[in-house]
């Protein structure tokens, strides 16, 4: 726990000044350290959790992990696939979004939702396909879960052998946050 606190403190002092809210978080980090020192690790953990929540709300959305995979069995549990596909083979993509916003379902529960803009480029960065709101993704939540993963399956039919790059813009449906990422791949016979 001590190493976690030290790492969090160092990360916060490094990153937070650029977001313009370092002072309140610095004070909260000192409070968490004092709680840990006074042998109250549960309260220190709760304080650290509130610090992460504040950072989450103020940070731009990012995609921490994006990979072609052959299998997904849960958050952080997947088998990476070499980015080589046959002409009509589906592409399964594992994503870990960070710092997204939460919405509410009609029943009052929490939900995280995104739309994805997709474009495909080929040789010489020629745009071969470009579609706004190509995919819609939603994850119903029981609380403001942070460790979630998304699964996308992209079906590209009629692709000729060659090298391509898929470009994605993940758009948070509950805020104006977006995150971009690209995945290069090869089509072979």
Description:
The protein is an alpha+beta fold and 189 residues long. It has 3 helices and 10 strands; from the N terminus they run αααββββββββββ. Strands 3, 5, 6, 7, 9 and 10 form a 6-stranded mixed beta sheet that branches. Strands 2-1-4-8 form a 4-stranded antiparallel beta sheet, with no helix packed on it. A hairpin with a 2-residue loop joins strand 1 and strand 2. Helix 1 runs antiparallel to helix 2 and helix 2 runs antiparallel to helix 3. The chain is elongated and about 65 Å long. The termini are far apart.
Keywords:
189 residues, six-stranded mixed beta sheet, four-stranded antiparallel beta sheet, 10 strands
Summarize the entry for a quick read.
This protein has 189 residues and is α+β, with helices and mostly antiparallel strands.
Helix and strand topology:
Elements: H1 2-15, H2 22-37, H3 41-58, E1 62-74, E2 77-80, E3 84-85, E4 91-98, E5 103-104, E6 110-121, E7 127-141, E8 150-154, E9 162-172, E10 178-187
Parallel strand pairs: 3-10
Antiparallel strand pairs: 1-2, 1-4, 4-8, 5-6, 6-7, 6-9, 9-10
Helix pairs in contact: 1-2, 2-3
